[in-house]
Design brief:
single chain; alpha+beta; seven-stranded antiparallel sheet; 16 strands; globular
């Protein structure tokens, strides 16, 4: 299919324009699309609850679609990139007392203590922080000890369209996987052109340290997008260009990564 025909095919489906600038099908004219919650790509680790569910046949290292509960293909087209910050409540309840004392706040039951979708302005914070700029917990040495790692998870997010799938998903690079997100970001930046003009391949690789064994997800180039893929990716980019994307996080990073977050 030629690029002009592929673009025309996509344009035919563009029927409604919301105030957020997202192109949608008919019937969504009155829906607030300023913020949407997207499913994420999840890496199956030793503590992942999906491995204990008899309805699925996942293995450690599998990368799955968190909503469709299907194993994802290896190749994807990145649509957009953004940073976010999230401060999670520790999974280990024995650490809660020390955790809240360190923050200087009263205990709360929230899984997420503080969150910023753009790593700038907070959307919710039990500590009443309005901005990430004046928050010490995203940096090393927040308690005066330069070796103390951050409490807040810095995350590189990728809105991705996987090969053969119509529903996008967010790949999150945080904790022990954060360095691979930076490498992918730099690779995409220096390769030139639109982010979504090229395809990439994501795989899971086992790593170990003194805390245990876990899987990380390095990314490698996988060639250029086809004309039809490029047209679909460009339509997807336009749809979400002015939309703030939240990610469906139903468990904390420690439940997936059996290793120190930094």
């Amino acid at each position: 299919m030629s690029k002009s025909k592929a673009v025309a095919k996509v344009n035919k489906e563009k029927t409604a324009l919301t105030s957020a600038g997202a192109l949608l099908g008919r019937g969504f004219e009155n829906v607030d699309m300023s913020t949407v919650t997207m499913p994420r790509a999840k890496v199956m680790q030793g503590l992942s609850p999906e491995l204990q569910d008899g309805d699925y046949d996942f293995r450690q290292g599998d990368i799955i679609h968190g909503l469709l509960m299907e194993k994802l293909p290896e190749k994807f087209i990145p649509i957009s990139l953004w940073d976010s910050n999230t401060l999670f409540l520790p999974r280990d309840t024995s650490k809660h007392k020390e955790f809240f004392e360190a923050l200087g706040i009263e205990p709360v039951d929230n899984l997420i203590i503080c969150k910023s979708l753009d790593a700038k302005v907070t959307q919710m914070s039990a500590m009443n922080y309005k901005s990430c700029n004046n928050c010490p917990y995203k940096e090393f040495g927040w308690d005066g000890n330069p070796n103390t790692p951050p409490l807040c998870d810095k995350t590189i997010n990728v809105l991705a369209l996987f090969e053969g799938m119509d529903m996008p998903v967010v790949i999150m690079f945080y904790g022990t996987n954060y360095k691979y997100g930076r490498r992918f970001r730099d690779l995409a930046l220096f390769s030139g052109g639109d982010l979504f003009s090229k395809k990439y391949k994501i795989t899971s690789v086992k790593e170990s340290n003194d805390k245990g064994t876990y899987f990380v997800t390095p990314v490698k180039p996988a060639g250029k997008a086809t004309e039809e893929e490029l047209a679909l990716a460009e339509e997807m980019y336009t749809r979400f260009a002015n939309v703030r994307i939240d990610v469906d996080v139903d468990d904390e990073p420690e439940a997936e990564v059996e290793a120190p977050e930094y």
